[in-house]
Write a structure and sequence with these properties.
With 147 residues, the chain is mainly beta. The chain is globular. It has 2 domains: 100 residues, OB fold (Dihydrolipoamide Acetyltransferase, E2P), CATH 2.40.50; 38 residues, no CATH class. The chain contains 2 helices and 6 strands. A 5-stranded mixed β-barrel has the order 1-3-4-6-5. About 12% of the residues have low confidence. A hairpin with a 7-residue loop joins strand 2 and strand 3.
Length: 147
């Protein structure tokens, strides 16, 4: 089985190109900075993983993804190789995106992903509105623990 699940921040805006021919296919390439679980000598380390999305997923990335946005990706690893102009063989590894989604709110993203939730107000059943849903206090989204 070849299945990859990643969560990280875009290192730059996606680079999107369209294939030639009758049916133009969008192809988006972007790099995710994925934090490593363990730190070495107290330094935060990250892996920079190349991703490629096709079709509707590529068009979505072009429209909505920007540098610094935290996203979650599922896909598969694909390896390949080519010969560069100097005649040297270059090996490549990238994730072919099957699904992609935002991993934090827009407010948290704009705040630099440093949201914390120490004194978050909690909605109570008595705060229910007439439509059957609880009212959520303003500012809660800014305090969610997702980075």
């Amino acid at each position: 089985m070849n299945k990859v699940i990643l969560m990280g921040r875009l290192t730059r805006d996606p680079e999107v190109r369209y294939s030639q021919g009758e049916n133009n296919l969008a192809i988006a390439r972007y790099t995710l900075a994925v934090d490593r679980r363990f730190q070495r000598n107290g330094d935060q380390t990250a892996d920079f993983i190349s991703c490629v999305a096709f079709g509707k997923a590529a068009e979505f990335a072009e429209k909505w993804f920007r540098q610094g946005v935290k996203i979650a990706v599922t896909g598969r690893i694909q390896t390949g190789s080519y010969t560069n102009k100097d005649g040297a063989k270059v090996y490549t590894t990238e994730v072919v995106v099957e699904e992609q989604e935002f991993a934090e709110s827009k407010n948290a993203s704009q705040a630099g992903g440093s949201a914390s939730m120490p004194n978050a107000p909690h909605p109570t059943p008595s705060a229910a509105s007439g439509d059957g849903f609880m009212s959520i206090p303003e500012g809660v989204e800014d305090q969610l623990p997702f980075e």
